[in-house]
Amino acid sequence: MLIGELVAVSGLSHDTLRFYERQGLLSALRTDKGYRRYGPEAAARLTLIRLAQGLGFSLAEIREVLQQMDALQSGSLEAGQVQALLQGKLAQIDHRLAELQTLRTSLSEQLMRACPLRLQAEQP
């Protein structure tokens, strides 16, 4: 399908598709006239990219997952390697959640104390 068709199917802009292509997330063949022609898997790949972004994956991480999935489909990678990558991301999220919980606890404790800024503002 041509880029305009993929835009219509995915709801993404031309610029976004070109950006994803430059980032190695999406690939297109070129026609004789230089138009981009995407394979039938492109729409599903874009859905996966958007899902991964929503789950907190960076574009670099998404590229790595896509490369591993491509290798898995070609038979040059085992499913366990993709699982290991996803488990690593889950561990990062758990670590970040722990950091955020610590920050929340600290902020909550600060709110329980008299705020120095508020006391200064109330004094004449």
Report what the structure shows:
By secondary structure, the chain is mainly alpha-helical. It folds into two domains: 1-77, Multidrug-efflux Transporter Regulator, Chain: A, Domain 2 (Orthogonal Bundle); 87-124. The chain has six helices and two strands. The chain has a two-stranded antiparallel sheet.
List the helices and strands and how they pair.
Elements: H1 3-10, H2 14-22, E1 29-30, E2 36-37, H3 42-54, H4 59-74, H5 79-112, H6 116-122
Helix pairs in contact: 4-5
A few lines on this structure:
The protein is mostly helical and 124 residues long. The protein is 70% helix and 3% strand.
Overall strand count: 2
Q: List SSEs in N-to-C order.
A: HHEEHHHH
- Cα-based radius of gyration, to the nearest Å: 23 Å
Helix content range: over 70%
How many structural domains in the coordinates? 2
Average pLDDT number:
85
Q: Assign an overall shape.
A: elongated
User: Span from first to last CA?
Assistant: 71 Å
CATH class of the largest domain: Mainly Alpha
Binned strand content: under 5%
Largest sheet: 2 strands, antiparallel
Tell me which CATH architecture of the largest domain applies here.
Orthogonal Bundle
Oligomer: single chain
Pfam families: MerR_1
Organism: Roseateles subflavus
Keywords: DNA-binding
Protein name: MerR family transcriptional regulator
